[in-house]
Amino acid sequence: xxxxxxxxxxxxxGVMLLSGAFWxxxxxxxPAIEKSAIQKMTENAAKEAVxxxxxxxxxxxxxxxxxxxxxxxxxxxxxxx
Length: 81
Known about the structure:
By secondary structure, the protein is mainly alpha-helical. The protein has a domain at about 40-80. It contains two helices and no strands.
């Protein structure tokens, strides 16, 4: 090899190593975006609406379960007589 070819090869290898180091150390994560006041208010309103819908449904399910349990107890009591 000639002197210039050898020198070019070393420079090329050096550039490749440096570019690999920079590429490997780069942080690809995006910075966390803070929610705006409107987004926070919207989320709070949505959570409140969901809770207002779910609470009566959960109570109705609980009452229905209690009625089923009471009816089952009465059937068992009648069978035992």
